[in-house]
Write a structure and sequence with these properties.
There is one protein chain. With 652 residues, the chain is an alpha/beta fold. It has 23 helices and 13 strands. The protein has an 8-stranded mixed beta sheet with strand order 7-8-9-3-10-11-13-12, with helices on both faces. Strands 1, 2, 4, 5 and 6 form a 5-stranded antiparallel beta sheet that branches.
Length: 652
């Protein structure tokens, strides 16, 4: 039923349905009832001094005996439940809140200060928790408040490290990158997108930490550092009973058993919750379907855009992206240059590792430290992206640049409804109220042909199919007034039918809004049939730049011709093996001298292996970076090449 409805049961339901979880739940419920009712019902009995029944052993009137003042030990153990649990939970809250702040702070603070804070947390984690608690208790002072602060501070470092580690894993997801493109600030990004996605495991660990805090508090009170007379908790009762253990063993065993049972209940509940949540995460992980190559009916060949104005939407000159490595700096993007005019669709193709996605992330300002982006010029709508401060670019990128990521399953925050995520852009940058922004989100979903947009806007991402999620991503980009849509492999994980729908939707958006499109794909057939111009990338560089309608007949770089030859076609001879490009692309940290494609090229000579070619004009509308470009006359093809069939407008 859970899969059929598309909704997940709450975490606690999955936990209590297991025998161990049910037992832990019953114990916790019993402890809560005792903490609420015991002081009300038996507080007077627990405080009543009886000089005629001092230090008695267990009897019918006193099942656990009496203490040195004749007070009933059973009533005192029951009444101490409230203070014992209350202090442990207070310390846990302090530790969890402080740990969450310390763990999340590096994501908000400047890089240098964040590293300093992370180092301090790592040092604190190396100190044993009980030793740290004893140190803080002595510094703050003996007593209840000092013990609470001591245990809370002892819990915080481990919790901070957990929050920092899990936050780092979430910040690499596509929906966080999309929020950055939308101009969401760091604090808002942390509160709305990061912390909700790590809430379940944090709650589980907080439950386990509560059990640890209970045991630690009992230990401090037993040593005389915690609760002071006349107040009492289980640890203080244990210390008092231990002095007379040979006269009345029950006086020491009863509070000890209470501590063990309560600690076991918290820890067992946390462990079962962790196991169940792990199983839920595994069972709900949707396997990524394999890549499906588009066939003949992929999309419509878009008429060439009008001549680009003098000021292009995107101007890139000598773009380089570098990352630190053991042997120095690795540069996977090496001097990329291109322009995207208003209303123009530019496709970027190449094998995995050619630098396509890194180029898209760089122009979208999504490369984070320690990565470094440099360029002679990197301008979006005339604004220099590398020289302008982040605050000044937030509104521009949030409203004028849209990103459509490769994996639709990770493109949205799974903890927030689709409509709320779309509306965030309008609330942030357009000053709309929550109701107005929601209505705009519904209108944008309707624009991209999402059925029942009002109902769909109230659903979560896991209730959308892959194609619907991609449409919703396009709708998110249209919440502003996009001048450029960067689509990074938007159809790779989709079947051919949904591929066609998504590409058709991108074409419709471009036609209706005049937005330019930068389409990144492995599939040269998709790019040839949907774009005006094609950039072919290899080993971090653009090796050929030519109009899409001349790709099949005028491509001159051997790598471009090899990609065309390797494109499957329904008319191919099935008795012949599929064409492949021999060898593998070079690694970014082991780039050869000269042309990077030389080792795989049949035309390579000594010059190719020694000198790296640069992009030069081919005499027409294209550019090629090759010392020996293939001479192909119009209407002919290189041996072994197959033409990816174009699709007529009526088939889109």
């Amino acid at each position: 039923m859970e899969r059929e409805t598309g909704r997940r049961r709450p975490a606690w339901v999955a936990v209590v349905r297991t025998p161990a979880g049910a037992a832990a739940g019953v114990l916790l419920a019993l402890l809560v009832v005792l903490a609420v009712l015991a002081p009300v019902l038996w507080s007077d009995n627990a405080e009543a001094v009886n000089s005629t029944a001092i230090s008695q052993s267990a009897s019918a009137g006193h099942p656990l005996g009496t203490d040195a003042l004749g007070r009933d030990i059973l009533y005192r153990v029951l009444v101490a439940t409230r203070l014992s649990l209350g202090l442990a939970l207070s310390a846990t809250v302090i530790g969890v809140v402080l740990g969450t702040l310390l763990g999340a702070a590096p994501s908000v603070l400047p890089r240098r200060l964040g590293r300093l804070l992370t180092g301090a947390v790592n040092i604190a984690v190396a100190v044993p928790g009980l030793l740290l608690a004893l140190f803080v208790a002595v510094v703050v002072g003996v007593g209840t408040m000092g013990a609470v602060l001591a245990i809370g501070f002892a819990i915080a470092p481990a919790f901070a490290r957990l929050v920092h580690t899990m936050s780092a894993s979430v910040t690499g997801r596509d929906f966080v990158a999309a929020a950055r493109v939308a101009g969401v600030g760091r604090v808002r990004l942390l509160i709305r997108h990061v912390l909700p996605n790590i809430a379940e495991p944090l709650v589980v660990n907080a439950t386990v930490a509560a059990g640890t805090a209970l045991l630690s508090f009992a230990g401090l009170s037993f040593l005389g550092i915690g609760v002071q007379a006349p107040s009492y908790d289980w640890g203080r009762l244990l210390g008092e009973g231990l002095d007379r253990i040979y006269l009345n063993p029950a006086a020491a065993l009863a509070p000890g058993v209470a501590v063990v049972i309560a600690g076991l209940a918290f820890n067992l509940f946390g462990e079962v919750a962790a196991a169940q949540l792990g199983m839920r995460a595994t069972s709900h992980r949707v396997p990524m379907p394999g890549r499906v190559t588009a066939g003949k009916s992929i999309g419509e060949a878009t008429p060439a855009a009008a001549a680009a104005p003098e000021q292009p939407v995107l101007l890139v000159r000598n773009l380089r992206v570098a990352f630190p490595a053991e042997s120095g700096w690795t540069t996977p993007v090496r001097g990329v240059s291109f322009t995207v005019g208003a209303g123009e669709a530019v496709g970027v193709v190449g094998e995995s590792g050619s630098g396509k996605s890194l180029t898209a992330l760089a122009v979208s300002r999504l490369i984070e430290a320690p990565g470094e982006v440099t360029a002679d010029r990197l301008e979006f709508t005339g604004v220099p992206l590398l020289e302008s401060p982040e605050r000044a670019l937030r509104a521009l990128l949030g409203t004028s640049l849209a990103m459509v990521f490769q994996d639709p399953a990770t493109s949205f925050n799974p903890t927030r409804r689709i409509g709320r995520q779309l509306a965030e852009v309008s609330e942030q940058h357009q000053g709309l109220s929550r109701r107005q922004a929601h209505q705009r989100a519904v209108d944008r979903l309707r624009t991209v042909r999402v059925p029942a947009p009002g109902r769909r806007a109230r659903q979560y991402p896991h209730e959308f199919s892959g194609g619907m999620r991609q449409r919703a991503m396009i709708a998110a980009g249209m919440m502003g007034d996009p001048r450029l849509i960067v689509a990074d492999e938007p159809t790779t994980a989709l079947d051919v039918t949904v591929q066609r729908q998504v590409l058709k939707q991108l074409h419709r958006v471009r036609t209706e809004t005049g937005a330019a499109i930068l389409l990144i794909s492995h599939d040269i057939a998709v790019v040839a049939q949907t774009c005006d111009r094609v950039l072919v990338m290899y080993a971090g560089r653009v090796v050929e730049d030519l109009p899409a309608d001349e790709l099949l007949n005028s491509a001159r770089h051997p790598y471009t011709r090899a990609l065309l030859a390797a494109t499957p076609d329904l008319d191919a001879d099935r008795d012949q093996p599929l064409a492949v490009i021999p060898g593998r692309p070079p690694q970014p940290d082991d780039m050869p001298a000269g042309c990077a494609f030389a080792a795989r090229c049949a035309f390579a000579d000594d010059r190719c292996r020694a000198e790296e070619p640069v992009l030069v004009d081919t005499g027409g509308a294209g550019h090629v970076a090759c010392w020996h470009p293939v001479a192909v006359s119009a209407g002919t093809q290189a041996p072994g090449e197959r033409t990816p069939a174009h699709t007529g407008p009526e088939e889109v």
